[in-house]
Design goal:
mainly alpha, 7 helices
Length: 179
């Protein structure tokens, strides 16, 4: 009997007696053991590895939130770096500056980046439908034209944040033994 099969049987026994904690534990062991099987495809192994790293097989509440926060900070830094005006060599001590592209807009550009990141991270936001247009106008100019690679960063941020929120919800479900 392979270790994967043994863990599957232990998981089923734990489920049969209503031991939710051990059922989840043996499920994690079962998935982890599949990483070492030759019959497991590479794509499946990558999925198992990501499931383990991002959420400890659905048992962690902190990991998905930490990954979502790290993703937020990383994409905000990428965006700030791309949008900031770099000083020329003789004025390097002035530091990088970021300003709203439209003078009449009273929006803080750092706040605009944070809002754009939040809108990407929490796909059910914004509550105010005009906010994305105001943020785009501030960050990218009057037309609000967002460069292609910014759209790719936003889409990836949205996708990965949705996955992190799903894994957080899975952790809540598992923690409180919801079916």
């Amino acid at each position: 009997v392979s270790s994967t099969e043994a863990y599957r049987r232990l998981k089923q026994m734990a489920k049969d007696v209503g031991d939710h904690h051990h059922e989840l534990k043996y499920f994690a062991y079962e998935l982890h053991s599949k990483l070492y099987l030759d019959s497991t495809s590479k794509a499946h192994k990558v999925g198992i590895f990501l499931y383990r790293v991002l959420s400890d097989f659905g048992q962690s509440l902190a990991r998905p939130l930490a990954w979502a926060l790290l993703l937020f900070v990383l994409t905000a830094m990428i965006q700030w770096t791309a949008l900031a005006e770099r000083p020329s060599f003789p004025h390097i001590e002035d530091g990088w500056q970021l300003s709203c592209k439209r003078e009449s807009d009273q929006m803080n550009p750092y706040g605009a980046i944070a809002r754009e990141r939040l809108n990407a991270a929490l796909i059910f936001l914004p509550l105010d439908k005009t906010e994305p247009a105001r943020v785009s106008t501030c960050l990218y100019g009057d037309e609000g034209y967002k460069p292609f690679w910014f759209r790719i960063v936003n889409d990836l941020h949205s996708l990965l944040s949705a996955a992190c929120l799903f894994l957080f919800g899975l952790g809540v479900r598992n923690r409180f033994k919801m079916k």
